[in-house]
Write a structure and sequence with these properties.
- By secondary structure, the protein is of the alpha/beta class.
- The chain has three domains: 113 residues, no CATH class; 276 residues, P-loop containing nucleotide triphosphate hydrolases (Rossmann fold, 3-Layer(aba) Sandwich); 80 residues, no CATH class.
- It has 17 helices and 23 strands.
- α7 packs across α8 and α10 crosses α11.
- It is elongated and about 100 Å long.
- The relative contact order is 0.15.
- The model has no long low-confidence stretch (mean pLDDT 93).
- Bound molecules: adenosine-5'-diphosphate and magnesium ion.
- The site of adenosine-5'-diphosphate has 12 residues, from α4.
């Protein structure tokens, strides 16, 4: 069905006159020849001069009979501005390099227009192709193995569907052996402690591990022996001065695995390894605070239930082992204060990254699953302040070692540009803040310079996927998680707890 006609414009900025009776919306996909266009702006058009319009309006408003100059549908119309999205030639998608025919008629896209979209081998399902607010029955899958190691950014304002998207992605990845995932879950919303969640996947029992300070039966206790903590785990997470940082390394070099105990039990006034007493005193206080430690009779006592002295479990290695086997590990960090959550996340991340660097060195990286680390409010660890930590390192060099971040954020602008640009897949949900849209647009894999209004008008669950692994910036609608579960035979199960 004819929707309109191209009446002017230039490359990247075509002007389409909307046929009367038809409705073109922002974000709509139009097809002409073998090019798919996307509408990014709308305006009125008229054949009349401004003075004619003013006169006619005056006569109408003041109750005079209307003078008809031309048929209404001819003289006034809507124009849409559209940009070429993709050029499909012989079933292959390319970047459009030419203009469609002048005065050519445009149609709405249909599913056949997307026959060129294939399902890659290690696919990750994101949603369905969307034309404006119309959903087409065309699934969008990206090469997940590659996309994961090149980092995924999920930016949006609150309530636009970030968490839902992550659930849909996790659900899809549960059975897939090409990826091991660590989810740091500060809202305890992914596993499904009280509602439907990843635990309800038919294969969850074998492939999903859930760690919590208060685990259900079948889950694991999230407790970390403080002796597993190393000076580098604190870097960029707890604010320490250079002198304090050096002091930690000095203790580590002298006492190795007992460094923390030695550091905390030392009398700052005694001249220890040439460290100033004030430095040591402040450092001790910071560490006690961060780790919930009391000193009782000169001995270290942990007060909280996360960092403890009594536990034989080596959760850092256990979790790294599971991820290397392609499992999905969810950490319920909902009861932890910020520092503790990031410390634990950093310890595990550091270990998995260390292992993958070794795998690369020994040439067996290709046998290993890609690693994805899901982190909420990513600027907490990727922001400028706080200094370099393991997450910065991964954002910069992780892809060489198949370790990537799935970074969720409301504030992309707080992430350094260089890191933003390194996140090679962006699943952009709605955002009404221009400064945020600009940060995302400025670092996207495709030219989204015209998509400001488009992104601003995205509804819940509507997104644009801009990735070096897609031929064009693909508008999608993400499924509602509950629908996915229902469709794929997930059953809501009730968790049991001890005592
Ligand atoms: N893909 C979707 N389709 C329909 N509704 C959605 C979709 N994603 C999210 N929603 C709705 O929006 C609400 C907020 O989603 P949520 O994922 O929690 O947002 P965020 O994590 O960005 O704050 C959900 O409770 C749901 O009702
Ligand atoms: Mg959320």
């Amino acid at each position: 069905m004819v929707l309109g006609q191209i009446i002017g414009g230039e490359y990247g900025e075509l002007v389409v006159r909307q046929k009367s009776g038809q409705i073109i919306e922002i974000g709509d996909l139009l097809s002409i020849d073998d090019i798919i266009l996307q509408v990014y702006d709308l305006a009125y058009g008229t054949l009349l001069e401004a003075t004619d319009l003013a006169r006619m309006s005056g006569m109408q408003l003041e109750g005079y009979e209307e003078t008809v100059l031309m048929e209404e549908e001819i003289r006034n119309f809507v124009t849409a501005k559209a940009k070429p999205l993709v050029h499909v030639k012989n079933g292959v998608a390319r970047i459009p390099k030419r203009l469609p025919g002048f005065f050519g008629t445009v149609n709405r896209v249909n599913t056949d227009d997307f026959n060129f979209m294939e399902k890659p081998e290690n696919s990750l399902y994101l949603g369905k192709v969307r034309s404006g607010s119309t959903v087409l029955d065309v699934p969008v899958n990206i090469d997940g193995r590659e996309a994961l190691s090149h980092h995924i950014l999920i930016p949006a304002t609150t309530g636009r569907g970030k968490s839902n998207l992550v659930k849909v992605m996790l659900w899809d990845m549960v059975p897939k052996e090409w990826c091991g995932i660590l989810v740091i879950d500060p809202h305890d919303e992914y596993f499904g402690r009280n509602e439907i969640g990843i635990k309800d996947h038919p294969e969850a029992r074998e492939k999903v591990l859930y760690y919590s300070p208060n685990p259900p039966k079948g889950g694991y206790s999230l407790r970390v022996n403080i002796s597993l903590l190393k000076p580098w785990n604190l870097r960029g997470i707890i604010e320490v001065t250079d002198a304090q940082s050096q002091a930690m390394y000095v203790f580590y070099n002298h006492h190795y695995d007992d460094w923390l105990d030695a550091l905390l039990t030392t009398d700052p006034e005694e001249n220890n390894h040439g460290i100033q007493s004030i430095t040591l005193e402040v450092l001790q206080r910071k560490l006690r605070l961060a780790l919930d430690i009391n000193m009782v009779g000169g001995e270290v006592r942990t007060r909280g239930n996360i960092f403890v002295t009594q536990t034989n479990n080596d959760i850092v290695n256990d979790i790294a082992d599971a991820m290397e086997e392609g499992k999905k590990v969810i950490l319920d960090t909902s009861s932890m204060a910020g520092d503790k959550e990031l410390l634990i996340a950093g310890m595990i991340t550091h270990e998995i990254f260390r292992r993958y660097k070794k795998h690369k060195e020994f040439g067996n990286l290709d046998d290993k699953p890609s690693i994805g680390i899901v982190i909420e409010e990513a600027p907490r660890v990727l922001g400028e302040r706080g200094g370099r930590n393991v997450f910065h390192t991964i954002a910069r060099e992780g892809r060489k070692f198949r370790v990537g971040l799935i970074a969720i954020t409301q504030l992309s602008s707080m992430i350094p540009r260089e890191i933003l640009a390194n996140m090679n897949t962006k699943i952009i949900l709605g955002n009404e803040m221009k400064s945020e849209r600009d940060a995302i647009i400025g670092s996207a894999a495709q030219d989204l310079s015209k998509d400001g209004k488009n992104i601003a008008s995205l509804d819940k669950g509507e997104a644009i996927v801009s990735s070096i692994f897609t031929k064009f910036a693909v508008p999608i609608k993400i499924d509602l998680f509950d629908d996915v579960v229902e469709k794929e035979g997930g059953k809501k199960t009730k968790l049991e707890f001890f005592g």
